Amino acid sequence: MIGRLVGALDAVLDSNARVAPFRILLQVPGSPVYSAIACGATLEEINQHWEWLEQNLLHTLSVFDNKEDIVSFVKGKVKALIAEETSSKLAQQEEDPEKFREALVKFEARFNFPEAEKLITYYSCCCWKGKVPRQGWLYLSINHLCFYSFFLGKELKLLIPWVDVQKLERTSNVFMTDIIRITTSNKERDFSMFLNIDEAFRIMEQLADVTLRRLLDNEIFELDPGLQDPTQITKRVLEARAQNEFFRAFFRLPGKEKLHEVADCSLWTPFSRCHTAGRMYASDSYVCFASKEGGCCNVLIPLREVVSVEKMEDTSLLPNPIIISIRSKMAFQFIELKNRDSLVENLLLRLKQVNASNPVHYNCVDKKETNSLMFVSTCVLSDCESQDLGTVASQSEDKNEGEKENSHLLNAEVLRSVFHQSGAESLDFRMSREQIKERLWNDHFAEYGRTVCMFRTEKIRKLVAMGIPESLRGKLWILFSDAMSDLASHPGYYRNLVEVSMGKCCMATEEIERDLHRSLPEHPTFQNETGIAALRRVLTAYAHRNPKIGYCQSMNILTSVLLLYAEEEEAFWLLVAVCERMLPDYFNHRVIGAQVDQSVFEELIKERLPELADHIKDLSTLASISLSWFLTLFLSIMPLESAVNVVDCFFYDGIKAIFQLGLAILEANAVELCNSKDDGHALMILSRFLDHVKNEESPLPPISNQHAFFSDEQEPCPVTEIADLIHDSYEKFGDHSVEQIEHMRYKHRIRVLQSHEDTTKQNVLRVVIPDVSILPEDLEELYDLFKREHLMSCYWQWMGPVIERHDPNRPYAEQYRIDSQQFTNLYELVSPWTCGEHTKVLAERTFRLLDENMDRLIEFKGFASCLDVMYNGEMNEKINMLYRLHIPPALTENERDSQSPLKNPLLSTSRPLVLEKANGDTVDYQKQLKQMLKDLAKEKDAKTEKAMPKMSQREFIQFCKTLYSMFHEDPEENYLYQAIATVTTLLLQIGEVGQRSSSLGSGSDEFTEDLQPEASAQDPVFTDTVKTTHKETQALPVTEGNWIISFEQILASLLTEQSLVNFFEKPLELKPKLENAKLNQYTLKTNGKSSQSLAEPVINTQ
């Protein structure tokens, strides 16, 4: 409809087009002039155009004050829509290089970014400024969202880094029903009137997610090659990435699986005796099918199970058919496939590659079992393997070297069967229920298939919700998770991993040993060394396989249950499937995935349980309580015989099952939770409820749950049947699709990552604030500038060899660090000590001074402390810093402007220390210096600090140069120059005294008496100074004595001039510098074009 509207608009502006029978005109009341806005060939078409105008344009016109503005706005909007539609008529933007190049030129000219800031796409839209919409162009690049508008004579530029986005959502406001709202730390921006708002939001969502993962989530960055080169990102790549992530999430496939083809088709479903319409997905190692009707039929076909892919004869009843045959003597017929030939060719090529890289290994001893490859390649145990298991068990109590050798032998059957609990056979009712379930499953296998390639329908979901029979549970877990493919394609991998990993000691193994006996301690299997040894091997092997995760708490509980129902090697691959595919990002340093799902769970509570959400204002309480539900799949807080039914649903439906079960539990306890007094009371209510969720049909005797938080036996608690609870969860909350959950995860991942950034920021500020006098709000803005400076090096790949990526695993203070160039940029923006062209040199010296550990990186604390001295320090602290900036290590020998051409004494020692003022008065600086030096000497003696090194003549010249540069353009510039000239003269004379003393050699006290008898007699400070100078400078490579001066002498000299004192003690404001820096920080990054400023009135970086 929008395309037709724009086509009509385009036709209106085409003078050669014939007049359409229906038109929409824009006319100002009282004016004879009108403008054609839209036209149509039929009444229906023009009505559609009018409806679009009503929904997207008419509501906004009321905000304008006069009619001329309305006409200008509507015409501008129409022209922009025509321009955008024209640019996409023939192809997408990347396929229309001329249009895209034109937009790129405008983008670069308007925002002056470096060439590395790649433009992804652009849209015509409106940005709301208060109640007024500003029509313009929205540019989406790899690191920024930018908006440009020139409307009614006013220019507007907005620049929002993706890394600053805290919330991205579609919502509505007073005037528009569908807008995109972008929230940063201090502002909200609304955008509307897109031609295709769905596409625009999807691309924005993808860009925000990719950028935040790339810059703020180091763990994901290293695992995802698609994030490591942002220059390869295009609009098409983003759309393919979104489709690929949905595909992997829907079928719960490995993260490295790449989707190649998506084709609409129909699949023959023998159980319904018809073809079911749906979509085929072909990836590196799988062919998958999902019906268009959700839940009707899904199929997962690993290519390693495929025997052949063949084309059938094309008929009217079976158009473009292909047959995919698998090893278990099943075949899948797909029809109505477009581009069938190329699809089959690609499938055959990938099938060849899969068979070459992963030859099929079936470890079936008895050929009779070949037809029952229903579950896994390791079908039957050999007698030898059973004997090995007995050997491990019999030697488990020995504490000798033989135990260590045999402890690496693997259990070749499930531990539940090894430690079969007595008494289960006597429960006739429960056993009969198990037999009924087994018959139902066998009937289902006969009709729908019994391999990983089975037809997955609503019927199997109902069977899973009833609870999988004990005899089939482990095998079906392996099928549903497709751990079978990993197991079959990696023969010997686990055994080798055990051999390599066992016996090695690291932090992960220490944590594993600590938790081994806490894993289902109430179960007899783990009261025996055999069970403990198997658990140790699986956890240690996984920690060795994936050191990024290593070992996390709750993995022990999950693995214990897996070992109860699967063989040891199968349990290992099930753990791999859970940690790396089904619960991504759950088991790592920051458990980002679990926190994201907790945030999604909060949103689902607000949406599906609004009354509960209204009563409990802070839903984070419920989220924190439910964290263990997600991390352990309810295994730690439900009786085991009930919790395994939850795990059944999880392996079939993924995280969706945990979400809906969590909602069902909250709904069942909603009344009590609304009346709860505090968080502890709410925790007790939920814990008591979960502790009384029973499984009356389980053939195993109940095992007390020692992981439950509370067990209040004084008040009877009603028993809830797990099958009923799961049934309710599917009936009431099972309508959320995987796609909806993935979109919610996108949104909440932004919030969680930004929450971690806020935590880092607050922890850094908490450490720094007590040590500085900068106002907390200014310090917060300074931290943002510091962080942005680091991130901008990541934006455009300007990271030198010493720059490190943001690593959230490092201590808070070390997560963001900057190098010399970044420090120089910040110094020029916020330092009060600006010295013109000399500023950069001073910044480099300041960086070397702060870089105490010589790693060429500094942290925020050092940067803030340095600025604190400049802005809030006392005069002696400021002079102290300036002094240290002009001696090593801050001042280096090879510094380009530090080489002094003066090698001889600057002044004659005959110049008097009594100077004549302009008004004829004389000032005896000698007396003032004597007293000040005495005071400083006493103060120095009182302190135990190590004295600072003396300053050489070359260093002193640089010190003076810096002072002269600092005074430039100061209101008191002339007085300051006179004062520093006077002080310099005095200090040069003092330095010459030390030089002459040094040139006379050892024991030259007589030199002082001959040259300055009065000073020597009356002021021992001068003499002490000379003596100390001589002793400290003997090693200096100067043959005619060394010209040196001390910090105390410089400070005392500067204190004699009131204008200098006033200059260093005048109050300085940091806030104006920060405000200017926020606007100008980007100008230093644009290819060295520092002359052009983005700090125009129209720029807003937030």
UniProtKB/TrEMBL annotation:
Q: Is Oxidoreductase given among the entry's keywords? A: no
Xref: InterPro entries: EF-hand-dom_pair, GRAM, PH-like_dom_sf, Rab-GAP-TBC_dom, Rab-GAP_TBC_sf, TBC1D8_PH-GRAM1, TBC1D8_PH-GRAM2
Highest taxon of source: Eukaryota
Span of domain Rab-GAP TBC: 467-654
Keywords from UniProt, A to Z, are:
GTPase activation, Repeat
Query: What SMART domains does the record tag this protein with?
Result: GRAM (SM00568), TBC (SM00164)
Record carries keyword Repeat: yes
Q: Which PROSITE patterns match?
A: TBC_RABGAP (PS50086)
Region entry Disordered, spans:
997-1016
Pfam families attached here?
A: GRAM, RabGAP-TBC
Q: Which residues cross the membrane?
A: none
GO biological-process terms attached to the record: system process
The molecular function terms of the Gene Ontology recorded here are:
GTPase activator activity
What's this chain's function? May act as a GTPase-activating protein for Rab family protein(s).
Name of this protein: TBC1 domain family member 8
The gene is: TBC1D8
